Amino acid sequence: MTQSPADLIITGCTALVHDEHEEIGFVEDASIVVRGGVIEAITDDVRDLDAVERIDARGQVAMPGLINCHTHAAMVALRGIAEDLPAEEWFNDFIWPIESNLKEKDVELGARLACAEMIRGGVTCFADHYFSMDTVAAVTAESGLRAHLGEAFFSSQGAEGLEKSLEFALRNRGGANGRITTALAPHAPYTVDDADLSATAELAREHGLPVHLHASESRDQTDNSLARHGRTPIEILERTGLLDTEILIAHGTGIIDRDLPVLEGATGQVAVATAPRGYLKFAWGPTPVRALRGIGVPVGLATDGAASNNSLDVWESMALTSLVQKSAEGDPRWLTSRQALHHATLQSARAVGLGERIGSLAPGRRADIILVDLTGPHTQPVHDLAATLVHSARAGDVRTTIVDGRVLMRDRRLLTIDLPSTVGELGERLPSLVDRSHGGRIQEYDT
Amino acid sequence: MTQSPADLIITGCTALVHDEHEEIGFVEDASIVVRGGVIEAITDDVRDLDAVERIDARGQVAMPGLINCHTHAAMVALRGIAEDLPAEEWFNDFIWPIESNLKEKDVELGARLACAEMIRGGVTCFADHYFSMDTVAAVTAESGLRAHLGEAFFSSQGAEGLEKSLEFALRNRGGANGRITTALAPHAPYTVDDADLSATAELAREHGLPVHLHASESRDQTDNSLARHGRTPIEILERTGLLDTEILIAHGTGIIDRDLPVLEGATGQVAVATAPRGYLKFAWGPTPVRALRGIGVPVGLATDGAASNNSLDVWESMALTSLVQKSAEGDPRWLTSRQALHHATLQSARAVGLGERIGSLAPGRRADIILVDLTGPHTQPVHDLAATLVHSARAGDVRTTIVDGRVLMRDRRLLTIDLPSTVGELGERLPSLVDRSHGGRIQEYDT
């Protein structure tokens, strides 16, 4: 009996795996067999097995592709446009005025550049929350990445905002051969009123859609919400029924103690995305990761948009989550490298609703795999591989990025995106994109 | 009249320069002419000029090489050996027991690996504080790097400790064609007694040597010092005469308000080196950079050793200094990208006593230059070049590293160090190096 060749075999790597208790371990000299976009086996013997494509990964670690659990991909176009400012000025004086110039073509080029950056940094899936999302879906399809996409809306758009968000989600879910999942995407409790949040929750339940939104982004927002409404942003989510849905909350640095029983009692599936770089930059506090873990809420890693975060480097988010959490808790033993890797893998997969499909290297999981080169001087010697990955390796050490078994970057060469033409075309559009002389803005930041 | 060819001409770069007020600016399409290890000119026209070597640096930024103002280079051998621990356990249970096994050969191989990492990360000068420093001087000479070296000592060594530190400093200063400067290197006020600190100060003045030591590393140390001696570590430095010397203080996260007038009143040249990654990891507070700047103390960037910091990535120290300081001060407007670049350039050069020789690209300065590639997707587009350098670029974007006009890395290829043989040889020695079964340690951590 002959077996048809596998689509891809990766040989000689050290594979990051999870045991039955989700503890992280490493299998040395492993081979990974991929067929039909799925991991078929992780084995030590593939000598008799044919494959259409083979990758020799000696000296490299294979790990689940990183997941960027909250971003605004196209905002790479605004990377560095508004620096060293408090969030209010950043929104009102720069980002929201500039976004009133935004054309579909800007989103297309920005998203394409973002996909290039993410593929180069070992990201295989991103949760995007922005405008002109049909365009982002098309770029996702062409790039080969996996994505969880939501068309953002404000109540200031009237009924049309939520309608468009729903239409987008229904039209695109399952797109790009199943790599695209979709969400309803209200902007935040301070820009979407309670009636629209309630309607969002109803539609989410009716259509089986998740919800992705910003909430409790900073302590100031929580304090303002309490002063204006007598409720925290999390309590508003609860009251409007959103905690009964599958909900991905971006940031949550303003989550306070009284929010914890509310989140714990939620009947939906609640997750939080943390993007620590931007919080330091805005001088916000950190996401209360330890408290959230204490009540079983998965905390996924994210970068937010590059206009605030300056990069889409999820590797850095992983390291910073560990560092900032130790510092914030005053406890060097907390958030070890293995915990950080758990956030980067299974918790991030759960945060984007794909906990059964991605986030670990195991038979039956989608073949979203990155190969990380540890031969550089900055990653030698290796006494503790988890620490090497979290605290010494960098996004630039990712040599190969694979999604659904398809190689999107090989030896640091992008295979699905023409970077120079993307950068060139975007550059020509920037002067009109960043023009703020019209004096308008798409929304007011007033929490 | 004919002119002899220049040694090196770098063409087509964007050059980071300082104006007369030390404000950072950028000169586009610049050429840098190097002769005799020195920058001869930064000009826009080199058409008629011959050169032995030319580097086409279009799309790249030329900036002063980074300076690692406090490290223990050879400790890369222990990268990842003791993770997620408080400082006391880290020292007493791992580092100081392991260091009692340390042989000169371990230091040689560790230092060589460290030099490889630093050259790859755009570091052109490092301030090293460790043991077997003659070996580190030899590796520095062979690597082509610039270094500020001090033989560390404890009072537990008896009189020999300080003697050896002095002999090392006198024997090696001016070594490696002037690339090596030296310092006296007492470990810290909690491991070196007041008599030895006073003797160090006297010898420093007598021989015109700087002093490099750890002090006020954490708030705990300051509190313990106050409880035991009624004085802060900074007050001990003042009382023992060390603040009358050229002194480089590592860390200083425990510097408190009452220390500021003491530092401000110092008759010597005081500088502080900050290594923010390790402070987060040990859950220490940050160096009070804003307060130190307020009294005119230069704050240089550093990584500490890789056993605590996990990397010798000064680029990351630059970004983290900006991020952590914004967060610690609660002020997103503070420590802008241009301020971070000022720390990375002139302030770091002053911290290692080379403020007139390196730290800026200007005629007459030593030609310590790095070329940074900004064509990657994570550094595009560029709206604010200072922000791109600090918050988007990474150590891995350094393509070329030059010290005294000599190219040490070209297009990411190391030209002076054989990395695989260094990693291989070091690997063979690791089992006996990390053996702690003897139960000894070189020193006790008890501040």
From TrEMBL, chains A, B:
Q: Start and end of every Amidohydrolase-related domain?
A: 62-407
| Keywords annotated in UniProt | Hydrolase, Metal-binding, Zinc
Q: Name one GO molecular function term.
A: metal ion binding
Q: Does the keyword Acyltransferase apply?
A: no
Q: Which SUPFAM superfamilies match?
A: Composite domain of metallo-dependent hydrolases (SSF51338), Metallo-dependent hydrolases (SSF51556)
Query: Where does this protein have coiled-coil stretches?
Result: none
Listed Pfam families: Amidohydro_1
Do you know which Gene3D superfamilies this protein is assigned to? Metal-dependent hydrolases, Urease, subunit C, domain 1
Listed InterPro entries? Amidohydro-rel (IPR006680), Metal-dep_hydrolase_composite (IPR011059), Metal_Hydrolase (IPR032466), MTA/SAH_deaminase (IPR050287)
The protein's name is: Hydrolase
UniProt organism field:
Streptomyces albiflavescens
